[in-house]
Amino acid sequence: MLLNIAERHKLILKKLENDGFVEVTDLSQEFGVSLVTIRKDLKALEEKNLLFRSHGKAIPSNPYTTENHVNIKEKINRKEKTRIAIAAGLILKPNDSIIIASGTSVIEFAKHLKPVDGLTVLTASLNTALILAENPNIDVIQLGGIVRRSSSSVIGPTSEKMLQEFTFTKLFLGVDGIDLDFGLTTTNSMEASLNKEMIKAAQKIIVLADSSKFGKKGFGKICGLEDVDQIITDKKLDKKTKDQLEELGIDVTLA
What angle do CA 90, 93, 94 make, to 5 degrees? Predict the structure, then answer.
């Protein structure tokens, strides 16, 4: 017996909740209706912001991130970012030389950074440099370059060239998106380019990102997950994603 529109919509959303995606061809066969009918169903549900259509399928939400000012982003998931920042501080060693990239997660890391003997920090973030400059036990190197106003950080060829003169034990990297297939991304291509140089300059790559960043994509690709050593996130990360990351050899810390 054929289902009516309301029944199809209800089952589509249920399947989406269970599986994380639905495909047009599968739904057409399962419900015994045309591909055109299913596409209309998905369009109607998307207009109600109940799903996001993409390449013959639908997923729960829009995976593409947009650029927001750092003052707005710092208010989002603040408690989670604080716990992530504290956990990140625990892995510092005496005489570490580290890079702190840009973004609200790494700014929070700087706020909670406890003095460590012989710590040297290079950063692209103006806010991070100002925070750490108040600590007499930390040597701070501020990257030069073009100021990106939305993130209060520097980007560009001057920054990238400067990085080539140093080597570091750890990179603490904030991102706008983490996709299991596509990798790490940010909303700005020039920042992605700078992040790539940071990765080349560091021995260990540590990503600080709350769980809302997973399944998201920004405009500029930073790297694949094979370049990542550790991800520190919050306890809202689902077990399936955590297991998949660990299968890739990534150390996952839930703060």
Answer: 135
